[in-house]
């Protein structure tokens, strides 16, 4: 069994799975249950200054389902903790004392003035917590009050607040980023400039999950009205992965520790975040959907994977980052063609419909429902592979250098050739 | 109280509650969630093989997608557009040899999309909502006679009425529905569905059903032709083949279809008598249904005996398995030679046979099965073609969409040559003949 012991900013935890700041980490009762189940750490539900906020008293979640009511995404209009500061601090202290081997990070969101931060930081430090996470991400409710995403969308504010925190506490500072911006690298750079020790991402994505077509209100509906919420769960993972990778490979933020969040549901998701540069991961929706018991699959799965690969946890972190590049550097001599394995084909015709109607008319439907790829038309877009219901029935096969690509009529070149040197590129750096 | 072991042909071999349970809906309605889960398995195939396999060519991927999208009523419209008896077909079609047999997921994993049950979910939802989804076109002033209120006649009548023609259906029996009412196994269509469906279908208007009117007895083809602009014959197969075994007229020997009709018309099945030792002769759907239902009524031993090899059974493998699960002993390669007994049947004697390139041959060995009730299910025949209609292989000869040899007379369903003898085939033929009649009348 691979050792999953993790160290993030010097904070130790028995495994790299933390519960993200959210309802699962809202109070002592939940967190103790989580630790008993085996979670490595928590980021406590975001604290604010008293008087504490209040939540709506109607539904706070909306949902997007896949087949069989499988939860693909949840959206919420919950705010930060709605309990008094003192109660939270007391519980944090008690839990940390009882569970010293687990990571205890406290999420914070207070108004954007130095005094507020100066007030709350010593109180948190006094609990014995291992670190703080600055919630600059919450897209609803708090941002209207000049907090949360309202700060996270302005790099200058991020830098300023991060600096105040570094000044007023010795605890490691993690800045939690909102995805509701156009380029994630700017807030990440600001966090680093302000001295933050790490970033965590993503917080939730601004969203309306559905509209009730009888009452004509967005869901979740509160007395006939709805508001945008924050979207999370498996549906947001691709957005989160990209943002993590952008920060991991940006020249200005490279090396900045990252805590990966967004749709982590199985060990595989966690491994993917870590391969793209996350030092650990945080989980919210999966725990809210299935309960704390999933930690056993997460830890056993990651450990088995590392064993199979003969890797240590630290070998995994960032392993895929060098392979994330810009489009212009992709090798145009990598020419592939779709190949259909007739033995596993079940003759559904989806590949045909997809290619014929929406791609390149590169699949022929022959008598007896035999589907065959026409190499002279196939641009290797991968759509047929994506829509085929049978795994590995359609694969992409590379044409060896020197063979003729019947589509272009050209011989596949040797070596690497990309857009930067392509004759059609007006800015081409003339290939010799 | 009788038990399965009580000798002779008696009623109440099982407790009424047990009988009621035995005859309960074999494939209960899927609820909305079950339907969504089942619907999610459909791949929305291109030029879907399931559609090709459906005699009425219902756009199956479309209706399943409509269920996925939360609109079973829209799905039902898609079904009814092609098959107005889609509700009955959802219950009685041998889907394992039709749509579901062709489903790509059957090929892939031996577990097809449950098309039949999804179809029922859609059609039941729309029918439960009341009303009728189709309106009639402007009246054309044309009158069409339909003979037989079975699936073929009803499908034809509905389509003609929709096109604005006035239809009179002449039906020999007391009730409309044909074999949906008098033939199909009771557990496939419980709760009086056949009559409910006919009533729902008639809501389109413009269709008058005259029961107790048999062609050849009360009316003639010539008379119908004189009074109507067109005639459609959908009278099914009224006759039955003879066993040609010695002693077949002994007491206790009867046609399976008659027994089934009686069963279907009996409200309280605990009063319906059945033998202790039942022997069913035949290898088709009727034989299976007679055997299974005898067993469900409490017969102690039921054997279904077919003269050819197992590969020649016309009942599907699924139906044979169903019979065997119900406790029916299925014997193949055995041909009846004599029915023994003193007044009433006591035993049936069979000769073992083998299939040879020159046909079926007795092996010379015989055996006897105890029997106090024998059901003959060796095929139905046309009870004489009305008028001078040309006949082909014992059935009414047709070309194209059901045109007979006589101008102005169409035919479809079991009484015609061509297609399998199934409810869904009868519906397709009735519908297509109606379109052809409509084209002829409005040309
Ligand atoms: C026991 C049994 C079980 C079956 N089970 C199934 C099943 O599970 N699934 C399936 O798909 N198919 C099944 N079938 C076959 C199916 O019932 C028939 O293929 C279908 O009913 C044929 O429809 P039709 O309209 O041609 O004939 P029918 O249903 O036979 O209807 C003919 C109608 O015409 C009337 N009629 C007859 N003679 C005259 C006359 N001279 N004048 C006026 N009216 C007349 C009859 O009373 C009847 O109402 C079964 C058949 C039997 C016998
Ligand atoms: C109901 C709910 C409440 C949340 N509250 C907070 C919060 O108080 N502070 C915070 O930083 N993030 C909050 N989040 C965001 C999560 O911590 C996490 O960033 C996000 O859900 C993405 O991860 P996931 O896909 O694993 O759920 C909340 C999420 C949910 C669903
Ligand atoms: S999960 Fe259900 S029962 Fe529990 S608080 Fe929410 S609404 Fe109430
Ligand atoms: S999508 Fe896949 S299974 Fe379906 S026809 Fe194409 S290759 Fe065959
Ligand atoms: S063959 Fe099966 S999967 Fe394909 S469309 Fe028909 S029901 Fe759906």
From TrEMBL, chain A:
<dbReference type="GO" id="GO:0005737">
    <property type="term" value="C:cytoplasm"/>
</dbReference>
<feature type="domain" description="4Fe-4S ferredoxin-type">
    <location>
        <begin position="369"/>
        <end position="399"/>
    </location>
</feature>
<dbReference type="InterPro" id="IPR017896">
    <property type="entry name" value="4Fe4S_Fe-S-bd"/>
</dbReference>
<dbReference type="InterPro" id="IPR017900">
    <property type="entry name" value="4Fe4S_Fe_S_CS"/>
</dbReference>
<dbReference type="Pfam" id="PF01180">
    <property type="entry name" value="DHO_dh"/>
</dbReference>
<dbReference type="GO" id="GO:0051536">
    <property type="term" value="F:iron-sulfur cluster binding"/>
</dbReference>
<dbReference type="GO" id="GO:0046872">
    <property type="term" value="F:metal ion binding"/>
</dbReference>
<feature type="region of interest" description="Disordered">
    <location>
        <begin position="405"/>
        <end position="432"/>
    </location>
</feature>
<dbReference type="GO" id="GO:0004159">
    <property type="term" value="F:dihydropyrimidine dehydrogenase (NAD+) activity"/>
</dbReference>
<protein>
    <recommendedName>
        <fullName>dihydrouracil dehydrogenase (NAD(+))</fullName>
        <ecNumber>1.3.1.1</ecNumber>
    </recommendedName>
</protein>
<keyword id="KW-0408">Iron</keyword>
<feature type="domain" description="4Fe-4S ferredoxin-type">
    <location>
        <begin position="336"/>
        <end position="368"/>
    </location>
</feature>
<comment type="subunit">
    <text>Heterotetramer of 2 PreA and 2 PreT subunits.</text>
</comment>
<keyword id="KW-0479">Metal-binding</keyword>
<dbReference type="InterPro" id="IPR013785">
    <property type="entry name" value="Aldolase_TIM"/>
</dbReference>
<feature type="compositionally biased region" description="Polar residues">
    <location>
        <begin position="421"/>
        <end position="432"/>
    </location>
</feature>
<comment type="similarity">
    <text>Belongs to the dihydropyrimidine dehydrogenase family.</text>
</comment>
<dbReference type="Pfam" id="PF14697">
    <property type="entry name" value="Fer4_21"/>
</dbReference>
<keyword id="KW-0411">Iron-sulfur</keyword>
<keyword id="KW-0560">Oxidoreductase</keyword>
<comment type="function">
    <text>Involved in pyrimidine base degradation. Catalyzes physiologically the reduction of uracil to 5,6-dihydrouracil (DHU) by using NADH as a specific cosubstrate. It also catalyzes the reverse reaction and the reduction of thymine to 5,6-dihydrothymine (DHT).</text>
</comment>
<dbReference type="InterPro" id="IPR005720">
    <property type="entry name" value="Dihydroorotate_DH_cat"/>
</dbReference>
């Amino acid at each position: 069994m691979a050792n999953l012991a993790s160290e993030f900013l010097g904070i130790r935890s028995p495994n790299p799975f933390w519960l993200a700041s959210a309802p699962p980490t809202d109070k002592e009762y939940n967190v103790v249950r989580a630790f008993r189940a085996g979670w490595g750490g928590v980021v406590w539900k975001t604290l604010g200054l008293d008087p504490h906020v209040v939540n709506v008293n109607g539904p706070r979640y909306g949902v997007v389902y896949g087949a069989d009511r499988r939860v693909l995404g949840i959206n919420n209009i919950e705010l930060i903790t709605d309990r008094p500061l003192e109660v939270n601090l007391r519980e944090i202290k008690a839990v940390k004392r009882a569970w010293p081997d687990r990571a205890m990070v406290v999420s914070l969101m207070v108004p954007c003035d130095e005094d507020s931060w100066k007030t709350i930081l010593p109180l948190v430090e006094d609990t014995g917590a291992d670190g703080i996470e600055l919630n600059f991400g919450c897209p609803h409710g708090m941002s209207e009050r000049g907090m949360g995403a309202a700060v996270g969308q302005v790099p200058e504010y991020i830098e300023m607040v991060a600096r105040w925190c570094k000044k007023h506490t010795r605890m490691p500072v993690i800045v939690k980023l909102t995805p509701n911006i156009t380029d994630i690298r700017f807030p990440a750079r600001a966090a680093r400039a302000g001295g933050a020790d790490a970033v965590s991402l993503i917080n939730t994505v601004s969203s309306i999950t559905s509209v009730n077509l009888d009452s004509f209100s967005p869901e979740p509906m509160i007395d006939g009205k709805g508001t945008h919420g924050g979207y999370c769960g498996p549906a947001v993972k691709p957005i989160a992965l990209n943002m993590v990778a952008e920060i991991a490979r940006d020249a200005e933020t490279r090396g900045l520790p990252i805590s990966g969040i967004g749709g982590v549901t199985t060990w595989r998701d966690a491994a993917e975040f870590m391969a793209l540069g996350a030092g650990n991961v945080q989980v919210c929706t999966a725990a809210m959907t299935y309960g704390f018991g999933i930690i056993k699959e997460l830890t056993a799965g990651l450990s088995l994977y590392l064993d199979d690969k003969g890797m240590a946890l630290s070998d995994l972190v960032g392993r895929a980052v060098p392979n994330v590049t810009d489009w212009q550097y992709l090798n145009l001599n990598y020419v592939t063609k779709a190949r259909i394995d007739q033995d596993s084909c079940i003759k559904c015709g989806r590949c045909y419909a997809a290619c014929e109607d929406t791609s390149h008319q590169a699949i022929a439907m022959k008598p007896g429902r035999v589907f065959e790829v026409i190499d002279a038309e196939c641009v290797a877009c991968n759509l047929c592979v994506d829509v085929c219901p049978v795994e590995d029935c359609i694969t992409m096969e590379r044409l060896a250098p020197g063979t003729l690509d019947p589509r272009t009529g050209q011989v596949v070149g040797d070596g690497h050739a990309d857009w930067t040197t392509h004759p059609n590129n007006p800015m081409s750096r003339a290939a010799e | 109280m009788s038990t399965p072991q009580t000798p002779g042909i008696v009623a109440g071999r099982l407790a009424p509650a047990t009988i009621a349970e035995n005859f309960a809906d074999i494939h209960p309605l899927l609820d909305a969630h079950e339907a969504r889960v089942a619907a999610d398995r459909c791949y929305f195939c291109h030029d879907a093989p399931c559609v090709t396999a459906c005699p009425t060519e219902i756009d199956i991927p479309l209706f399943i997608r409509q269920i996925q999208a939360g609109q079973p009523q829209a799905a039902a419209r898609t079904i009814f557009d092609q098959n107005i008896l889609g509700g009955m077909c959802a219950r009685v079609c041998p889907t394992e040899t039709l749509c579901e047999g062709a489903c790509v997921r059957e090929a892939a994993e031996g577990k097809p999309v449950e098309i039949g049950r999804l179809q029922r979910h859609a059609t039941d939802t729309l029918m439960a909502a009341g009303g009728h989804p189709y309106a009639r076109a402007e009246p054309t002033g044309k009158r069409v006679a339909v003979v037989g209120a079975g699936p073929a006649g009803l499908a034809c009548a509905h389509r003609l009425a929709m096109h604005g023609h006035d239809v009179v259906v002449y039906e020999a029996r007391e009730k409309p529905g044909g074999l949906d009412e008098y033939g199909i196994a009771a557990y496939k269509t419980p709760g009086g569905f056949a009559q409910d469906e006919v009533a729902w279908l008639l809501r389109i208007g413009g269709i008058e059903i005259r029961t107790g009117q048999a062609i050849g007895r009360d009316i003639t083809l010539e008379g119908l032709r004189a009074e109507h602009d067109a005639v459609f014959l959908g009278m099914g197969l009224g006759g039955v083949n003879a066993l040609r075994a010695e002693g077949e007229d002994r007491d206790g020997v009867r046609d399976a279809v008659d027994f089934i009709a009686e069963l279907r018309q009996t409200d309280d099945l605990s009063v319906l008598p059945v033998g202790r030792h039942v022997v069913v002769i035949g290898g088709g759907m009727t034989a299976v249904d007679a055997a299974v239902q005898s067993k469900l009524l409490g017969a102690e031993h039921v054997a279904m005996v077919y003269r050819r090899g197992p590969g020649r059974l016309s009942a599907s493998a699924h139906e044979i398995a169903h019979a065997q699960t119900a406790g029916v002993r299925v014997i193949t390669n055995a041909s009846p030679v004599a029915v023994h007994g003193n007044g009433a049947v006591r035993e049936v004697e069979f000769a073992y046979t083998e299939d040879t390139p020159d046909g079926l041959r007795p092996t010379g060995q015989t055996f006897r099965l105890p029997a106090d009730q024998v059901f003959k299910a060796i095929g139905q025949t046309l009870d004489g073609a009305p008028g001078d209609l040309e006949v082909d292989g014992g059935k009414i000869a047709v070309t194209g969409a059901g045109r007979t040899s006589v101008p102005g007379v169409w035919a479809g369903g079991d009484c015609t040559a061509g297609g399998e003898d199934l409810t869904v085939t009868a519906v397709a033929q009735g519908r297509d003949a109606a379109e052809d009649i409509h084209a002829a009348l409005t040309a």
